[in-house]
Amino acid sequence: RATRLTMDRQGIRQLAAEKLKLPTSPYRFAGNLAELEAGAKAVGFPCFVKPTMSSSGHGQSTVKNKNGLAKAWRLGIEAGRGKTGKVIVEGKINFDYEITLLTVRHAAGISFCAPVGHIQIDGDYRESWQPQPMSKIALKKAQTIAKKIVSELCGKKGRGIFGCELFVKGNDVYFSEISPRPHDTGMVTMVSQTMSEMELHVRAILGLPIPEIPCRPGASVAILAEGDMKNPTYEGVENALKQPGTWVRIFGKPEVIKHRRMAVVLAIANTVAEARKKAKFAASKIKVAEG
């Protein structure tokens, strides 16, 4: 149930906003261009048009005015992960920052990792860091939202880690999306936490103890490749690793088709700002090229 709902933007948004009464951006669903035009008018411009079944930004558009709706409709219908015949149109929230709150449901209850701040471009993760500074009020609200939706998705027996994506504006927090697995923005936990998000997921599923989850300042930057490559190779890795406290994780994907995330650079430092600077510098040294 959790897997099905979290891949279905209509199902998860109705669960969050209509059943659980969680704060979200304004939204409408559309099954044709006329419905999309009416929905966009209701939520206002600029707005975001997304397939109801998709991930990693596939089929997503930012629409500034009504002239862009026809193109957004075609992209949303044609480029989604699944063919539902529907899109969601969302109004814009002028948030201060967005976070992923990694939330672990395990035998002893629910635990939270420190909030992960991140940057997404066209719905695709590019950079993340941990911990993201938040007010105590905003953090409490974020944890309350994540606990409510994770508990609903898990029922009595569900176990594992969830990536709960949230928008934060001052002390206000809005639910965006949730993934029933380790999250791409959470790759930073491979260096920022003593237990990575992957280890936490396995521990929860196997019923192993999950004590406190300590965190130190860390950052990640995605390595992207553009074009078509049948034998991608990685140049500059040795230069990226010259800085102390940096790592490179290559995903081992056998080919590149148009646009693909191929690796991630990780870094730790005394502060989040320093870790982000190190990760971005190291990432700038790496190039994916045809072998």
UniProtKB/TrEMBL annotation:
Residues annotated as domain ATP-grasp: 14-206
A matching Pfam family: PurT_C
GO cellular component: cytosol
Gene Ontology molecular-function annotations: ATP binding; ligase activity; metal ion binding; transferase activity
Keywords: ATP-binding, Ligase, Nucleotide-binding, Purine biosynthesis, Transferase
Record InterPro entries: ATP-grasp, ATP-grasp_carboxylate-amine, ATP_grasp_subdomain_1, PurT_C, Rudment_hybrid_motif
Record-linked PROSITE patterns: ATP_GRASP
Presence of the UniProt keyword Ribosomal protein in the record: no
One of the protein's GO biological processes: purine nucleotide biosynthetic process
Name assigned to this protein: Phosphoribosylglycinamide formyltransferase 2
